[in-house]
Amino acid sequence: MTDLAPILQGFFTDRLARQKQASPNTVAAYRDTFKLLLAFARERTGKAPNKLSLADMDATLVGAFLQHLEEQRGNGTATRNARLAAIHSLFRYAAPRAPEHAAVISQVLAIPPRRRERALVSYLTPEETDALLAAPDRTAWHGRRDHALLLLAVQTGLRVSELTALTSQDTHLGAGPHVRCHGKGRKNRATPLTSQTVKVLKTWIAEIGPTSDGPLFPTQAGGRLSRDAVERLVTKHATTAEADCPSIKEKNVTPHTLRHTAAMSLLRAGVDTSVIALWLGHEDAETTHVYLHADMTIKEQALARVQPPGTSPGRYRPPDTLLAFLDNL
């Protein structure tokens, strides 16, 4: 066994599991990255994975691997950068443990992520949101469940994994109503609920049993909804909503669209982006800036305050006192 194997094993058992307490999703993503990398290195070097050394995993091989992901596997820039981030994390862990390979490690760490264009986020307007929430058939059990799930998603901006992990005990519908979730990065957060959401959740929880420790939004058999199941139900109801609101047809409505919709609703209500970042559970407040770019209303308000070139500012005229009186009624 060469120096790579114990370092890689220690990275998962010590760095990810003990030090960072990484989530199962993070561990799985890193595992898949290194399975692909080791398989690629075996083809390039002819060495079995347990015979590979850190010296074999130089910048040339890693660069070829990243190119392979894009050209042969058809991965996009985001996936390519995520794989590179996992490799960088391993090599930072290896640096103090294999100083004899400092040159190779520094060269790999110097490989930059690829810059990519950021598309404007897609979100629903208030009219589209109302049409989507009205789409489920609430005379049926599935329709009542889907309506409660969609309303909670649009109002709170919870991720799919957070929605499907909720139980009845995670909802607090008395004074100061809120929902608690165990979010990304093992962070717990509480999100307040509106009176409309509280009313719908109270009715739904009474139907499934308020003492149930099972999922808040179960399958008919009582199990937990999968990510794919949530995506299917969102697509299904978005298609139904197109009859009353044709503009939905122009958008690719996914569970993440509902999260974007919650953020845009907060932004348009005048909530600061730092508060929205806390609301959504963003690690970095700068992540929330994408909503500023997407909101044309804020840009139009800014434009209205700009004096067009070649014009002179108008003279201030106080409002008529009688009209002001009527306006203030």
Description:
There is one protein chain. The chain has 15 helices and 3 strands. It has 2 domains: 106 residues, DNA polymerase, domain 1, CATH 1.10.150; 177 residues, Orthogonal Bundle (hpI Integrase, Chain A). The protein is mainly alpha-helical and 329 residues long. The model has no long low-confidence stretch (mean pLDDT 86). 55% of the residues lie in helices and 4% in strands. Helix 3 runs parallel beside helix 5, helix 4 packs antiparallel against helix 5 and helix 7 runs antiparallel to helix 9.
Contiguous helical run count: 15
SSE series: HHHHHHHHEEEHHHHHHH
Strand order, largest beta sheet: 1-2-3
N- and C-termini, Cα separation:
83 Å
Mean pLDDT: 86
Roughly what fraction of the amino acids lie in strands? under 5%
User: Strand count, sense and closure of the main sheet?
Assistant: 3 strands, antiparallel
CATH class identity of the largest domain: Mainly Alpha
Number of domains: 2
Q: Can you identify the CATH superfamily of the largest domain?
A: Intergrase catalytic core
